[in-house]
Amino acid sequence: MSHAKGLIFLGPPGSGKGTQAQLLSEQLTIPHISTGEMLREAITKKTKLGKRVQYYVNKGELVPDELLLNLIRERLNQDDVQSGWILDGFPRNVSQATFLDKLLLELGKFSEQAINLEVSDNQLVKRLLLRGREDDNEETIRRRLEVYREKTKPVIDYYQQQCRLTSVDGTPPLERVTASLKEVITT
Ligand code: AMP
């Protein structure tokens, strides 16, 4: 049985995980799977899924699990991700994490590693306000950070308790963080 590497990038909004995931995806030539990007694309294209998720994304709330689970299942079954992937933005709560565990067990070929990018709260708000995405207004940012603390922080604990988590300081300049990430990614 072949073992392809699956990287799960965790960290609060504004931690730089999307940017780092994209950079590493190019450098390691494995696809970057961002659920946020997939949802924004669905919204732009006004697909059925897009129409259902728009309300949540604009408010900074989590999209209901049932809409995400199929999306992830289908994505991890596609040809281009069979030799590895970087997942960014999923899992966002513990039930998504247990779903992912089951799915990966079922697929049977991926050895996954969860990496947490750590950044202090005041840095996060500063970075998010600079980014200027449509859902980056102050109210939504505040809500996204709250949702992160309530729902996503337990995912970090979930991986930590199982000794499956590596933490990396996300505060230094971008290239240094990329270098640290490369150091901790096991083959
Ligand atoms: P992101 O680009 O990862 O910051 O995600 C942007 C928005 O998409 C979030 O604020 C959520 O509304 C939604 N979203 C992305 N990934 C998920 C997920 N795994 N579960 C629920 N909602 C998600």
> In terms of per-residue confidence, which ranges show pLDDT below 50 for 5 or more consecutive residues?
none
* pLDDT averaged residue by residue: 94
Rg from C-alpha positions?
16 Å
DSSP, total strands: 5
Q: How large is the count of helical segments?
A: 8
**Main β sheet profile:** 5 strands, parallel
Q: Gap between N and C termini, in Å?
A: 16 Å
**Proportion in helices:** 55-70%
Helices and strands, in order, run as EHEHHHEHEHHEH
Structure class: alpha/beta
Small molecules bound in the structure, each named once: adenosine monophosphate
Shape: globular
Percent strand equals 15-25%
Q: Main sheet: which strands, in order across?
A: 2-3-1-4-5
Topology overview:
Elements: E1 4-10, H1 17-28, E2 32-34, H2 35-44, H3 48-59, H4 65-75, E3 84-88, H5 94-107, E4 110-118, H6 121-131, H7 138-161, E5 165-169, H8 174-184
Parallel strand pairs: 1-3, 1-4, 2-3, 4-5
Helix pairs in contact: 2-3, 4-5
Bound molecules: adenosine monophosphate (AMP).
Written account of the structure:
This protein has eight helices and five strands, in the order βαβαααβαβααβα. With 187 residues, the chain is α/β, with parallel strands linked by helices. Helix 4 packs parallel to helix 5. 29% of the residues are buried. The structure holds adenosine monophosphate. Adenosine monophosphate binds next to helix 2 and helix 3.
